[in-house]
Amino acid sequence: MEEYNNSIIQEDIFQISNYPLRWTDLLNKTVLVTGAGGMFARYIIYTLIYLNENKKFNIRILCLMRSEDKFNKYFGFHASTDKCIPIIQDVCDKLQYSNEIDYIFHFAGNANVTSIVNNPVDIIKTNTVGTLNIFELARKTNCKKVIFASTREIYGRPSERYDELREDSLGTLDPLDDRTCYPESKRMAENICCSYFLQYKIKYNILRIAHVYGPTMNIINDGRIMSDLLYSIINKSNIVLKSNGEMERAFCYLSDAIIGIFLVLFNAKESAVYNLANESEPIKIIDLANILADISSERGHSIDIKINQSNTQKGYFKFERKKMSLKKIEHLGWNPAITLKDGLNRCIDVLNSIQHIDKSN
Fold first, then answer.
1. Cα 55 from Cα 47, distance rounded (Å)
2. Is 93 a residue whose pLDDT tops 90?
3. Mean pLDDT score, 164-175
4. Which of 128-142, 233-247, 282-296 has the lowest mean pLDDT?
5. What CATH number should be reported for the domain holding residue 194?
6. Is 302 helix (H, G, I), strand (E, B) or coil?
7. Scanning 7, 43, 189, 262, which has its CA 20 to 30 A from the CA of 33?
8. What is the pLDDT of residue 309?
9. Contact 114, 311 (CB under 8 A)
10. In whole angstroms, what separates CA 282 from the centre of its chain?
11. Domain that holds residue 148
12. Could you give the CA distance from residue 336 to residue 210 in angstroms, rounded to a whole number?
C-alpha cells in the first residue's frame, strides 16, 4: 500500500488514467497481467486499480506472479475485494484459469544481467514456454487481445544500411553469445504471437521497448546501467563505471511508456508491432552519471565518479546503439512528456521515501 499511495506514483497514475484514450473499453472487463511484480506490470495494475477506485470501472484484475509475499506487498491493500486477484505460479507452468479473460498484458520476463549470466535457461523458458502458455490461455478464454512486451534487442546487429531501427529492420544475432538467450527467445516469442494469430486468430500487439526506467524498477543487483547508477545514488556511494562511459543510451520514463502501452491496446492496428522508446534526449553514460552526481550534490551528498574499466562484458548488449524509429507509435498520438532530469528526480524521491533498498543485501 505504501508504494501505491506514494504521492509521485499517484501523480503518475493520475496522468496516465486521464490521458485521452478509450478507457471505457475496460469497463467491467477482466484483465490478466503477467510478471505482476515487475516495473511495468505494477504501473499497469496500479492504473487499473485507480480506474476502479476513482471511476468505478469494475475491472477484474488478475495478477500472475510467483511470490505471494510480493503480491501482498504491492497489491494486498486491494485484494480484500474480488477485483484484484492473485494467481501465484510460474508462467512456465500450465495455467488453469478457466473463466473469460478480455485482455492480457504479457510482461513476465527478466532482462537483468545477473539472471542472464547465471540463469539463461530460465530466461529462455519464460520467453518461450511462458508465452506459449499465455497464448493457450488466451485461446481458451476468448481473449480479445494480448499485449506482448518485447525488446529493442531483437534487432541484434542491424545492417549498416539502416539509419534508424524501423519495425521492419532486420539484424543478426550470434547464437553462442552469452546474452543471446534473451533477445533470441524474445524473437521466438514474437513468432509465437504471430503463429497463434495465423492458426487461431488470437489478436495481439507487440511493443519493442528500450531503456525504460521508473519508480518501480529493481535497482538491487540488476546489472543494467540505470539501475546500478540509481543504486549508488540511493546508497550515497561513489559511482563506479565498468567502461569509459562513452556508450550512448536514450531513456524513457515509466509513465510515458505506460501511456504508450495503453495507446497500443486501444488504438493499434491488429497484430502490429510498435517501437517504444524516448529518443529525444540521447545521452552518454558518463554524462548521465554526472547528472546523477549533480542531483546528489543538490541533495547534500557528494559522490565521485570512478572508472573501473573491465575487459569482461559478459551478459551485456555489445552492439552499437542505433536510434529507433518511433513514427508508427507517434502516428497513434504518442509523445513522451517527462524530461530525463525530472524523471530521475522522481525516481530518486520515490526510491528514498519507500526504502526500496534493503541494507542487509
1. 11
2. yes
3. 91
4. 233-247
5. 3.40.50.720
6. coil
7. 7
8. 64
9. no
10. 19
11. 7-216+250-281+322-339
12. 13
Exposed, middle or buried by CB within 10 Å (0-12, 13-18, 19+), for 139?
middle
Amino acid at 211: H
Q: Is residue 292 part of a domain?
A: no
DSSP class of residue 240?
E
Show the CA angle centred on residue 101, arms to residues 99 and 105, nearest 5°.
Answer: 140
Question: Cell triple for residue 238?
Answer: 561513489
Provide the number of structural domains found in the chain: 1
C-alpha cell belonging to residue 34: 503477467
CA distance 6 to 77: 14
Q: Which band of pLDDT confidence, cut at 50, 70 and 90, is reported for residue 157? A: confident
The pLDDT confidence band at residue 59, using thresholds 50, 70 and 90, is very high
Name, in order, each residue with C-beta under 8 angstroms of 176's C-beta and a sequence gap of 6 or more. Answer: none
Tens digits of residue pLDDT in 193-210: 999 999 999 999 999 999
Cα–Cα distances (Å) from 288 to 145, 228, 331, 344, in that order, read 38, 12, 30, 10
Alpha carbon 127 to its chain centroid, in Å, reads: 14
331 Cα distance to chain centroid: 22
Which is nearest to 227 in space by CA: 351, 360, 43?
351
Angle at 356 between CA 51 and CA 214, to 5 degrees: 50
User: For residue range 296-352, what is the model confidence (pLDDT) as tens digits?
Assistant: 999 888 888 888 766 556 645 556 778 999 999 999 999 999 999 999 999 999 998
User: 50 and 265 in contact (C-beta within 8 Å)?
Assistant: no
Strand partners, 106: 34, 148
Spatial contact of 116 and 178, defined as CB atoms under 8 Å apart: yes
Assigned domain for 121 exists: yes
Q: Is pLDDT at 360 greater than 50 in this prediction?
A: no
Q: Using an 8 Å Cβ cutoff, are 351 and 10 in contact?
A: no
Residue 158, domain member (yes or no): yes
Cell of 223: 546489472
